[in-house]
Amino acid sequence: MHRVAVLVLDGAKPLDVGIPAQVFSHRPSMPYELRVCGAAPGLVRGGEGLSYHVDSGLETFAWAQTIFIPGYREPATTEPPAAVVQALRAAHGRGARVAAISTGAFALAATGLLDGKRATTHWHYTRALAQRHPRVRVDENVLFVDEGDVLTSAGAASGIDLCLHLLRRDHGVGAANHVARRLVAAPYRSGGQAQYVPRSVPEGVGEVFAATREWALRHLAEPLTLDALAQHASVSARTFSRRFVENTGYTPMQWVLRARVDAARELLERTDLSVEQVAARVGLGTGANLRLHFGRVLGTSPTEYRHTFSE
């Protein structure tokens, strides 16, 4: 039996707690034993008006071989208890692997175990994680990251992907597929697949070149060069490029490319246009060009994206 502990912190999100508890629950087909614990035994305040009653505290870590840290509320402004941080370090030092779901990455990062390593969290919190823990190499565009004995995942649904990934590591593809069928979940999504955020184009700060950005979004099918954008904004190309980067974090051409990918996503979701037709509509020319940039920005193909998200 592989021993799994699920740590419930204050503000723990119900779905994040339930995913590893459900996946690794003991049954004849599952060689795992699971315990849910808190910083101390007793009542733990949760989110959405829920609370949890846990029977054990941090002593569970001495028993566990894998520890899950589910996401919790207010991670950017809440420090995990010092006792939790110390217990996680000690458990890892004894050989336990530690996996964080969603904002649980903040508690894991507080231990220092992610320093110098890649990690991810829910896309809404990736910048906050990077700012709070600058030694962590935050990857905002993946579903989960496996660094061997420390693992992190994005939002709650990608916690399922992370759990199935660990099952594959432990007992092979057959065991993971068996559990995926039980959960009615996709049996395999690569950790490198992009998180599907509402837009890949960054929101501009303030009104700098807002009219030009809006104009560009209406003319994506046309050739959009740096000179054309600067001419619309009535400034030099050099000034436009410098101020655009300051405002968005992207060069004008990077922004245009991401805007075109966003437009392609919408067409793939809402129309039956072919990949070639979508590419032409958004100014990317050919289906091959669309596939290339779609893969670079989103980590998947237009066909797979349509299969997942089309109406």
Automatic annotation (TrEMBL):
Domain HTH araC/xylS-type per the UniProt entry, residue ranges: 210-308
| UniProtKB keywords | DNA-binding, Transcription, Transcription regulation
Query: One short Pfam family name for this protein?
Result: HTH_18
Q: Does the keyword Nucleotide-binding apply?
A: no
* PROSITE patterns per record: HTH_ARAC_FAMILY_1 (PS00041), HTH_ARAC_FAMILY_2 (PS01124)
Task: Name the InterPro entries on file.
Answer: Class_I_gatase-like, DJ-1/PfpI, Homeodomain-like_sf, HTH_AraC, HTH_AraC-typ_CS, INH-QAR
Is DNA-binding given among the entry's keywords? yes
The molecular function terms in GO held by this entry are: DNA-binding transcription factor activity; sequence-specific DNA binding
Name of this protein: Transcriptional regulator GlxA family with amidase domain
Q: Which organism is this entry from? A: Kineococcus aurantiacus
